[in-house]
Automatic annotation (TrEMBL):
Belongs to the plant acyltransferase family. Pathway: Alkaloid biosynthesis. One of its GO terms (molecular function) is acyltransferase activity. This is Transferase. The keyword Plastid does not apply. Keywords: Acyltransferase, Transferase.
């Protein structure tokens, strides 16, 4: 049973850039990739045990000062989304910063972490009294034991995980007094993929019936991953990745559950997998390129009795075929708008009523643990923290996972 605890707000303010944004940077256009993202904040939680941490007040001052300095470089994050949803007004309005006191020990809360309870450690986008929500919402939670949890929500409309990792890494470096400060590039992606006027995805609320969906955390023992990879290996894919192995297992289990819910009636199924395009571009985009650079890989089952090895093959084939060198040249050519807006292979699956459709994403390889050392060591646990949410039943229910490496206290 999840542990009950009280989160008491003790401080709230707006953190603004330490230096004003130059006039020539006051407006920043979004890219076509940004336009395809719905308006919504993605939640991240960084948990730090009390391993000789400084007093709460000292940590608080350090976080606020370094955040202000970081916003000078990430000036777009201190602005607000324009009413046209095609640009950012870099007006230095700042980001929301809240501090709380939690009436329990961090280690006790994390013995059986519960998504809905952990969501209390995150700020809410509704904190903005008027106008658009801030791009970044920070909530710093202090526990009785001296441990802390930093909750961060970021607006997906202007940043993907690669970009937010860059932001957190820079913020942490500023806090440590390190010279490893990134200077993000907010212009390259919009130049390569310009915005389209009168187009945007405003929210997740499209016509259809809303249904509340519960989120669950599944833990895979690290020692079991090599065993799973060996189990799903085949002549076609002799060396599957851990992502391929876990996605295939989740896909198979989701299909089995759907079949059971239908009283045993089997259907074909499809899966959409979010893909980071930075390293796949020709030439690859530098890591400092900020914004969204995402697409979807689509795979589907060939029959109703698909085994794990076959599912892995579908994932591998989909990635190879849809993100080959020729495909990436098409994405960056005259047909880029069609490829980005409609993702032909994925659109065909979404339009079909004769199959179950799932969506997943992996945050492996983004080095969130290594990036978030503010001077008191790497976090013990980093997680995507989502409580209950209403999803449109006409859209695919996402299977999102992150290898967090949490091994207990």
């Amino acid at each position: 049973m999840a542990m009950e605890f009280i989160v008491e707000k003790i401080h709230e303010e707006i953190i603004k850039p330490s230096s004003p944004t130059p006039l020539h940077l006051k407006t920043s256009m979004l890219s076509l990739f940004d336009q395809t993202q719905p308006i919504g904040h993605v939640p991240l939680l960084f948990c730090y045990p009390n391993n000789g941490l400084a007093e709460g007040e000292a940590r608080s001052q350090l976080l606020k000062k370094s955040l202000s300095e970081t916003l000078t470089r990430f000036y777009l994050f201190a602005g607000r989304l324009s009413s046209s949803l095609s640009s950012m007004e870099c007006n230095d309005e700042g980001v929301d910063y809240v501090e709380t006191r939690v009436n329990c020990r961090l280690q006790d809360m994390l013995k059986e972490p519960d998504c809905e309870s952990l969501a209390k450690l995150l700020g809410s986008p509704q904190m903005a009294a008027t106008g658009p929500s801030p791009v970044i919402i920070v909530k710093v939670n202090f526990f009785e034991c001296g441990g802390m949890a930093i909750g961060i929500r970021f607006l997906h409309k202007v940043a993907d995980v690669s970009t937010i990792k860059l932001f957190i890494k820079t913020w942490a470096a500023m806090a440590r007094g390190s010279s490893d400060h990134a200077v993000p590039d907010f212009t390259t992606i919009p130049l390569l993929f310009p915005t389209i006027s009168d187009f945007s995805v405003r929210s997740d609320d499209v016509p259809g019936q809303l249904r509340e969906v519960a989120f669950r955390r599944l833990v895979f023992d690290a020692s079991k991953i090599p065993m799973l990879k060996a189990q799903v290996a085949s002549r076609d894919v002799p060396q599957p990745t851990r992502v391929e192995a876990v996605v295939a297992l989740l896909w198979k289990c989701a299909r089995a559950a759907a079949t059971t819910n239908r009283g045993g009636f089997k259907k074909h199924s499809g899966l959409l997998h979010v893909v980071n395009l930075r390293k796949r571009m020709i030439p690859p985009l530098p890591e400092l390129c900020a914004g969204n650079a995402l697409s979807m890989m689509a795979a589907q089952t060939l029959d109703c009795e698909t085994e794990l090895q076959s599912l892995v093959k579908q994932l591998r084939d989909g990635m190879r075929d849809q993100f080959s060198e020729s495909s990436m040249r098409k994405l960056q050519g005259n047909g880029a708008v069609f490829e980005i807006l409609f993702i032909p292979s994925g659109s065909l699956l979404i339009q079909r009523d004769d199959l179950d459709l799932y969506m997943c994403s992996s945050w492996c390889g983004f080095e969130l643990y290594e990036s978030a050392d503010f001077g008191w060591g790497k976090p013990r646990w980093v997680t995507v923290c989502i409580g209950r949410k209403k999803y449109n039943t006409s859209k695919p229910i996402p299977i999102n996972f992150i290898f967090d490496g949490f091994i207990g206290w």
